């Protein structure tokens, strides 16, 4: 799951993220409560506003839980024990997927 972040955007609403991840907003709220790694700000109305760092962490949680089949407890343990190593691997995979999409687009233009 690779979400393209707008470099000019500082915050993302829960609705934007739910749409980008194709999940219910309630799942993102649940993950926010379950995972300490997520630290969204709340605006004056009390709505969660996620930073680009939060979005990267959501991608990592999504990858562990939805793509690799980790339980929530398993994902939490994995994040605590090897967060840096996991994040590095995940970022490499994300970059490679992005490059693959670009190469396929180039191939299709030939």
Automatic annotation (TrEMBL):
Name of the protein: DNA-binding transcriptional MerR regulator
Keywords for this protein: DNA-binding
Record-linked InterPro entries: DNA-bd_dom_put_sf, MerR-type_HTH_dom, MerR_fam
Record organism: Flavobacterium arsenatis
Ranges where the HTH merR-type domain occurs: 11-81
Entry-linked CDD domains: HTH_MlrA-like_sg2 (cd04765)
A GO molecular-function annotation: DNA binding
Taxonomy, superkingdom: Bacteria
């Amino acid at each position: 799951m690779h979400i393209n972040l707008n470099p000019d955007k500082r915050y993302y609403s829960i609705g934007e993220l739910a749409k980008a991840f194709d999940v219910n907003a309630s799942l993102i709220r649940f993950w926010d409560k379950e995972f300490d790694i997520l630290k969204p700000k709340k605006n004056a109305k009390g709505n969660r506003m996620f930073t680009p760092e939060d979005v990267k962490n959501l991608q990592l949680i999504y990858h562990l839980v939805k793509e690799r089949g980790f339980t929530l407890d398993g994902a939490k343990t994995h994040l605590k024990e090897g967060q840096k190593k996991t994040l590095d691997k995940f970022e490499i995979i994300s970059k490679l997927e992005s490059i693959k999409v670009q190469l396929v687009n180039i191939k299709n233009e030939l």
